[in-house]
């Protein structure tokens, strides 16, 4: 006998519309996951939405023999900007496999390691800028790290120095913000209103992002190079399986998608700074490790593998920030079989075609897996303790074949930036009473989190 999936009471006709804040959907889902636990559902205008917020069910949904990525809602909306790119392609579209086989070789740990010095030097530039700000500065952690991320992404993947660290915010950052916020909100509004009232914003943001990408293509054409990077692959590689190359428009689609994906990294790092400030003993321990491993040398790629405690900080920040807040799964359709899909050994059942949204705020803090799930403890993310954790709580990069293609880039970037910041900078909360609040669209970042930065006291 299956148990009904818990659901908040709701109101007649409109259902659970008031349980979700369209301006901060993920905060509403976090709250619901705290109340209802491993699984819950809501009904909005007759449509059922199911959410999984527990580790065991998340692991079950990771079985690629039974489930696959669901391309729906906001992901379909953002196709207006990037069409059938990696992140947005439907299962049936051959373009996913073609682009994946063309891009993946440029994002292996080895390929990404060749870009280490570019990442580190961009981070050094940001720190050097901060050192000129004087003692009484206040900066937005996410604002500064968004700039660093765009600078590093553009340089490492596309070979162009944007020089955006010390400049007003690059238009690409607002383009990504506007397009992703619009993609999240459109499914909640009547189509006519989207078209009449909000179409202009979506169009303008798309134009900005595609102009950023076109300039990179033009720059490469005007400056031919032997450099092997993602842009080189996009523009000239052929899929080894089919011999197909990407069209000019697909090249732009993929160039735009990568910074949207990588903007999760600064969201993670900004939240990590908050966790560090709330846990000063972690900074002390990380500095002991950094002093022992790196000492007074400049950080190199070889050091990263020995920074196990810093890696614990990155992983614990991934767990508690849920910087990528979730992902969507659906049962793999079976010909003519419309019987319900059972979850949890029959404990729950969902319709054969029911999409499920995995809410990482619930999964990553599952109290059946973690003692003191809200505490920030890098030690549990190291060595045997980390290896022993169930697979369901390590889904911060998504799952299976649609797992994040930038995960090695993200690991290297997060490790490099955190190692440099912890080594060289003392942060202080601008408002000592600040408590973490998050919002976001395709990623979650701290709201109104300002810090003062100073060179590390000797
Ligand atoms: C901390 C950093 C990051 C996190 C937590 C993260 C998380 C994720 C997650 C959860 C997915 C799966 C989405 C889904 O199933 O719908 C995903 C996919 C993706 N990510 Fe990331 N990501 C990060 C950084 C990056 C970076 C640096 C890039 C680019 C260099 C990137 C590019 C992508 C792309 C293109 C996809 C779609 C892959 C596909 O479907 O084939 N991400 N990411």
TrEMBL record:
An annotated Gene Ontology molecular function: oxidoreductase activity, acting on paired donors, with incorporation or reduction of molecular oxygen
Gene3D superfamilies: Cytochrome P450
Keywords associated with the record: Electron transport, FAD, Flavoprotein, FMN, Heme, Iron, Metal-binding, Monooxygenase, NADP, Oxidoreductase, Transport
Cofactor: heme; FAD; FMN
Residues given in the record as heme binding sites: 404
PROSITE patterns membership: CYTOCHROME_P450
A Pfam family reported for this protein in Swiss-Prot or TrEMBL: p450
Tagged with keyword DNA damage: no
Keyword Acyltransferase: no
Record-stated family: In the N-terminal section; belongs to the cytochrome P450 family.
Name of the protein this chain belongs to: Uu.00g110170.m01.CDS01
High-level lineage: Eukaryota, Fungi, Dikarya, Ascomycota, Pezizomycotina
């Amino acid at each position: 006998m299956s148990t009904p999936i818990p659901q908040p009471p709701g109101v007649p006709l409109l259902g659970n519309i008031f349980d979700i804040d369209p301006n901060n959907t993920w905060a509403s889902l976090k709250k619901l996951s705290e109340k209802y636990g491993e699984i819950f559902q809501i009904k909005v205008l007759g449509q059922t939405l199911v959410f999984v917020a527990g580790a065991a069910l998340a692991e079950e949904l990771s079985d690629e023999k039974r489930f696959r990525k669901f391309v729906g809602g906001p992901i379909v909306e953002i196709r207006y900007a990037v069409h059938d790119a990696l992140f947005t392609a439907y299962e049936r579209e051959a373009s996913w496999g073609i682009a994946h086989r063309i891009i993946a070789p440029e994002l292996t740990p080895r390929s990404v390691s060749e870009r280490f010095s570019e990442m580190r030097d961009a981070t050094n530039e940001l720190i050097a800028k901060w050192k000129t700000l004087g003692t009484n500065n206040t900066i937005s952690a996410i604002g500064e790290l968004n700039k660093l991320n765009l600078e590093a992404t553009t340089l490492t993947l596309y070979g162009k120095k944007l020089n955006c660290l010390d400049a007003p915010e690059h238009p690409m950052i607002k383009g990504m913000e506007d397009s992703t916020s619009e993609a999240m909100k459109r499914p909640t509004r009547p189509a006519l209103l989207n078209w009449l009232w909000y179409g202009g914003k979506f169009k303008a943001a798309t134009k900005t992002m595609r102009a950023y990408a076109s300039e990179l293509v033009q720059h490469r054409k005007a400056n031919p190079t032997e450099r092997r990077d993602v842009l080189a692959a996009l523009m000239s590689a052929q899929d080894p399986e089919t011999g197909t190359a990407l069209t000019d428009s697909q090249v732009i689609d993929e160039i735009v998608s990568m910074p949207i994906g990588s903007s999760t990294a600064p969201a993670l790092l900004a939240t990590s700074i908050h966790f560090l400030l709330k846990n000063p003993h972690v900074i002390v321990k990380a500095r002991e490790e950094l002093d022992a491993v790196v000492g007074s040398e400049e950080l190199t790629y070889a050091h990263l593998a020995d920074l196990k405690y810093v890696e614990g900080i990155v992983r614990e920040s991934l767990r508690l920030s849920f910087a990528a807040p979730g992902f969507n799964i659906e049962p793999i359709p079976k010909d003519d079989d419309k019987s319900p899909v059972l979850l949890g050994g029959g404990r729950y059942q969902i319709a054969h075609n029911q999409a499920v949204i995995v809410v990482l705020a619930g999964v990553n803090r599952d109290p059946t897996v973690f003692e003191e799930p809200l505490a920030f403890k890098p030690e549990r993310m190291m060595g045997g303790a980390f290896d022993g954790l169930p697979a369901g709580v390590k889904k911060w990069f998504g799952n299976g074949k649609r797992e994040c293609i930038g995960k090695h880039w993200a690991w290297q970037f997060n490790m490099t930036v955190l190692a440099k910041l912890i080594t060289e900078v003392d942060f202080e909360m601008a408002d000592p009473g600040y408590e973490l609040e998050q919002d976001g669209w395709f990623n979650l970042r701290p709201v109104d989190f300002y810090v003062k930065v100073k060179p590390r006291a000797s």
